[in-house]
Amino acid sequence: MYPAIPYLRQSGRRDQALARAQEAVDIFTALNATDPAGYGAKLAAAKRLVADIQAETRSGDAQSGDAQPG
User: Fold this and answer.
1) Residue of 2, 1, 9, 7 whose CA lies nearest to 54
2) Coil, strand or helix: which one is 70?
3) pTM of the complete model
4) What whole-number distance in Å separates Cα of residue 35 and Cα of residue 21?
5) Could you tell me if 49 and 5 are in contact, meaning their C-beta atoms sit under 8 angstroms apart?
6) Residue 18 DSSP code
């Protein structure tokens, strides 16, 4: 998850960051099935990251929608 996802987010490539974060969720979901104590926190962090990026994307879409030429 680090450093690729933060870099992608900061450089404005949120779609790519979201794809990598979702991939992390998928990986940690599989690992969590075998060792919840070892991977539960990482899975939760990856899920929060996905939610944060999705929220940024939605707020960015709303802001760009507000600036429609009239």
Assistant:
1) 9
2) coil
3) 0.84
4) 20
5) yes
6) H
**What's the rounded Cα separation, in Å, for the pair 43 and 48?**
9
CB-neighbour burial class of residue 66 (10 A; exposed 0-12, middle 13-18, buried 19+): exposed
Enter the tokens of residue 50: 């996905």
The token pair at 21 is 């974060």
Peptide linkage before 3 cis (omega within 30 of 0): yes
Distance CA 30, CA 12 (A): 29
pLDDT digits (tens, 9 = 90+) for 38-47: 999 999 999 9
For residues 36 and 7, the answer to whether their CB atoms sit within 8 Å is no
